[in-house]
Amino acid sequence: MSDLATTVTVIDACGRAGVPVLLLSDPGMGKSSLVRGLAAAEGVPCETVLGSVREPADVAGLPVVTDTGVVLSPPAWARRLADAEAGYLFLDELTTCPPAVQAAMLAVALDRVVGDLTLPGGVRVVAGANPPDRAADGWEMSPPLANRFCHVQFAPSVDDWLDGMTVGWAAPPASRAITADPTRAETIKALVTGFIRLKPEHLHTFPRTAEGTGGPWPSRRVWAMLAAALANVRDDDAAARQAITFGLVGEGVGVEFLVWCDQADLPDPAAVLDDPALVDWTGRPDRVWAVLSAVVGWAASAGSVDAWRKAWGPLLAAAEAGAPDVAAAAARPLAACRPAAARVPAAVRDKFKPVLDAAGLTGQAVA
């Protein structure tokens, strides 16, 4: 269970990353009031779509024949959000939606596509649901739909309710989320890829029970969602980090991942590019891989010739310190993202010749 301030932080952090959030609670806990309050506090519209009283075409778009063919005309609520360029789309009572409506929500939930309309990036998707056994004509959530959300157990405290009654529900707690810069984004991504390299069995684990498929579980999609959302949370915000991690990959795998993150303690990739000696390259191979992954990601996001050339320095240091296999694994994506004008450093040619051969860079000029 997350306190109200943590729930607001999770919604904000996930919203910045384009990750939809699902608030789960008993009826009457105030899910819709929270979402409307967030929208009011930000001065943006909130459109509520109650799936139990909608047809699939009300969500996925109504087919309309035009002179140029058939188009999927978006509903009025989607057009209003598109015109506002920001806001909250609240998909309410998700576990009362029949399977056909749940299927129509697949593209809406994660991709924000409604018919032939793509909602602007400023639109955040939040859903609300009661447990199926406590919902009116409840349905279990389909695995594809459940795997598109960060699941948050919503249970405001008595004090949260008293505060809302006193000052109004349009004054939610302040979010603790941050806006990730490129360096932080690559560091968090490296934590995710480093963990999966260490424990590849957790990359995709489909639940064995029907009940489990309606909750959070690890998949390739949610690991990418986790990397994007966690980048918007401070390292010392343990409550929000845990809520997002458990809400996307589940509690069991989530605990393992968070422990690994704390033990990895990755350095700033930009600092490693400037001075590879900052890292003990003889340490744990999984940590070395994560550091190199962050370095490669940072260089790829920078997109400059200088960053790409400098990124080979840490890889060479790791290879010379006794981790050539790990360095070669990191060299493959680095070679693949070479800027057009970049020349392969001379020291790299001999050390990573098989990788360069595979990337077609052996014949390139060196510098």
UniProtKB/TrEMBL annotation:
Alphabetically ordered keywords of this record: Plasmid
Q: Name one Pfam family in it.
A: AAA_5
A single Gene Ontology MF term assigned here is: ATP hydrolysis activity
Name the source's superkingdom: Bacteria
Keyword RNA-binding annotated: no
Q: Which CDD domains match?
A: AAA
Q: Which InterPro entries match?
A: ATPase_dyneun-rel_AAA, P-loop_NTPase
Q: Which residues form the ATPase dynein-related AAA domain?
A: 20-149
- Name it: ATPase associated with various cellular activities AAA_5
- Organism source for this protein? Xylanimonas cellulosilytica (strain DSM 15894 / JCM 12276 / CECT 5975 / KCTC 9989 / LMG 20990 / NBRC 107835 / XIL07)
